[in-house]
Structure prediction request, 686 residues.
Amino acid sequence: MSISTDHTQLQRQLYLLGYSHALPSDGVVLVSTLLKDLQASLDRVKELEASTVRLEREERTTRLGHDKAKGELHALRTENNSLRAEVLGHSREADRLRRESRADQYRLSKVADDLRMANLQLKAESAELSRSLGDCQRRCEARLSELDPRGKIPRMTVNRPFDVSRLQTHKTQVQPAIVDLVDLSSRRISALEHEIEHLEDKLSTSGVELKAAQMEVKERDLELMRMNSEYERMNPTQDVGDSQVPRLTDQVDYLHERAEALEKEAKDQREQFAKEKEDLHRRWVAAENDRVAAGDASWWRQAVVRVRDSAANLARSNASNAADRLRDECQRILDSTPTNNQSNGHSSPQPLSPQSPQSDVDVDRLRTECANIKSLYAQTRDQLQEILRSGNAESREAVEKARQAEAASQAAVRDLQRQLENAPQYRELAESRAKEISRLEERLRKAEIDHRVELSGHSAEIAKLTEQLAMSSESLQRANSMAGDRKMQHEGLLAEYQQLVEQHRKLDKSLKQAVGEVGEWRAKADEREHRTSELARRADEYKLLYRQNSSELNTCKKTLEAFTSDLDSLREAHANDQREVERLGGELEQALRMRQAVEMSKDEYKAGLAKALAENEAHRSLVSHLQAERSALRVQVKAQFHLSQRLEQRLEALDPTSAADVTLAHPLPLSRSSSAAHSSRSFSGK
Prediction:
């Protein structure tokens, strides 16, 4: 009873599962065992799904925590960038202060040099003035010492030194303290230079520390970037689809591009042929105009050969190019079907066997069309060769006739010239010969017209050939389009067959995977657990790194604050330097005023010197006047002396006793004479 009940229950369960076959009695135990295993597997699958949902929820929570950490990292990066910008601003300010201090130092050094030069110039000028005054004083003393101090000639007291201080005013006297102002300024400038060098050394050390801090900040940025890249690599976005672009679309696009390229090439060839035709027509018209203008048979022969060669070469090249293109295109079309099938990676399947005869018929039809095109090309080539041979023969005959006619006409002209030179009775013969020449010219014109007609016939044949080539290209394009349609149908059937094969493969794969589904779920669950533990471990590592970076960032902030305090001290020192520079500027202005005062005193010295020189000139004039008076007095003294001598001689001659009495009675003239003699002796000695 229990066995039948179990059999009925198992039959009902199998019917619910979709198995409508009768269950044999000997397979009840096996089927019940399989159903129990299936139930256990389904329960395990549900548990795994629940654990998967829980793990996904935990993963989302962890991702939210990581997003928060990423936001904090972004804020720290922004703060780091702002600190870096502030550091750059401080460094620029320090550079500006250093440049200004160097400029002030250079300017003060220039001012000090100017003051030193001005002081040296003033010293040199004052020394020169004192030297010139001493020389003038010595010259005056030398000139005045020539006068006799014991005589009664009034003279000036020039033994005292020449005082030039009375020429200066009390206001312009130079104080002794102002003279040493330049030395004081130079010493102050040297002290400022030493202080500026000390500040520059301090600024260089602060710059080195700032560069070290910037390098640390850059290293922290690189570490943050590395952490972000690891975090993004740990949580990649799985948004890329598994579907690939079908090959059929690529092949259709390739066929469209190939058709457009062929159309463009055909259009370019037609345009090139039209251009060559126009060029040939233009050359023919130019040759015709030149021939009409020249009227020379040799030129006509060369023009005919040139036009014939150009037309033949053009027709031959166009025909060969068109035939080569048609042959290559046919070969490409014939080879495209197996190549595309091989590129698609499909072999000819069995279900497509009813479609193969149609494709074979298309291929045979294309081959016949290709053979027809080849035969047409051979026929066209033979016709062109025949036309060229006939044209060459006719042109050679025409050229030969033209040469013979030209030679005959030249011989006739020479004969006529000789006959006209020999005798005038050959005029009738000359007229007949002229008529013959005119007939020959008429024949040449007719031959020219015939050649034109032949050329027009050749051009018509070339046009026919071009039309045939165009028709063959159109037929080739139609064949290409039909082949493309057949190819698209064939590829569509191949795609359908491939889809069916893919569906069959998927079903087979799903059936094969049904057996090992439980193991895969277990492996996935273990992988999820391992991944979750790895994520937790990396999250802890990130937290630790974040704490370390936060502490290092705090140290960087402290270092930056120290730098800012140093920069404030540098600014205060720079302000003090500026105040010192202003004070030095005031001292410099005072020194400049002192220089102006010295220049004014120099002008007064010059005025005193000029006045002293004027007085010297007056003294010179007085000395010259005194010398003139002295010479006059010498003359008078000599005259008195001679007069007294004559008187004495007379008195001695008259009476010596009376002369002695006279001398005793009048001692003064004798003393005067003796003094005059003494003075004359002294002057003569001098």
Notes: Residues 254-344+355-498 form one domain.
